Description:
Keywords: NADP, Oxidoreductase. This is Quinone oxidoreductase. Residues 11-321 form the Enoyl reductase (ER) domain. The chain is α/β, with parallel strands linked by helices. The protein has two domains: 2-119 and 292-322, Medium-chain alcohol dehydrogenases, catalytic domain (Quinone Oxidoreductase, Chain A, domain 1), CATH 3.90.180.10; 123-264, Rossmann fold (3-Layer(aba) Sandwich), CATH 3.40.50. It has eleven helices and 15 strands. Strands 3, 4, 5, 6, 7, 14 and 15 form a seven-stranded mixed sheet that branches. A six-stranded parallel sheet has the order 10-9-8-11-12-13, with helices on both faces. Strands 1-2 form a two-stranded antiparallel sheet. The longest helix has 16 residues, at 271-286.
Amino acid sequence: MTRxxxxxxxxxxxVLSWESIELEKPGPGQIRLKQAAIGLNFIDVYxxxxxxxxxxxxxxxxxxxxxxxxxxxxxxxxxxxxxxxxAGELGAYAETRIxxxxxVVALPGSISFEQAAGMMLQGMTARMLLRETYPIQPGxxxxxxxxxxxxxxxxxxxxxxxxxxxIGTVSSIAKAKLARAHGCHHPIIHGEQDFVAEVSRITxxxxxxVVYDSIGRDTFLRSLDCLRYRGMMVSFGQSSxxxxxxxxxxxxxxxxxYLTRPLLRHHIEKRHDLVASANDLFDMVGxxxxxxxxxxxxxLSDAAKAHSALEDRTTTGSTILTV
Length: 323
């Protein structure tokens, strides 16, 4: 037996149920992982509310880190006692879990369990956005929405390291200071500044090659107005709600724009892509070119409180759940 947070019906944070569950032995190609820390992400909220449907009941959560307790048959290169981490694998909100061995990566000694839990999904997402979705070039000026969030802070730091000038939207003066301290050259505060006008001012009317938007409904259409001809709109989240349907002609009328909605799992589906992505992230964090801000920590049994804080947008940086 182990304990886990389960969802038997979709709804608010109150549907998260802390209970004992049976844990089978790891099958062929699987490991049993004793988790030390688990990451909190908005996709956990989408699963809990049913916005992204998954079969009920389920254990939410997409990332974590811990120590291998047991291995099944045909598992190579992983042994009991190894430190590992993962992202993109549903079922993280548990003290101990079963997971396919080829979906975990070895955790360097320089990276703590807490760091790993706070960065695997967000950090590999940032790498995907900056290196693959729209490969940043030195001299690019870009816009990052929710710049003080977990993914936002990593995006700002990594983009700055690649030679970009980073414009970022935030919701308060305190978040603006945090974003600026993590590579955002031009923080813009919602409600006090018009981000479209500010982008035009900062770029002297030239606008941007790319916008990275995890907010969705509240920012999507106006973000299109920040793009230069043939610019790229990258929608990778919807914390304010789903984006309304868009007629393709709107992209043409705004300057032959490109629109994409990338998912990390499609970029790390193959084992070698997963390892390459994680190793790039480990290198950036291990060399201190990127700092992971873990600004909220909750016990796993208090996951409902963590969800409420995330949805209320009172969090900054990464939030982790500890076991």
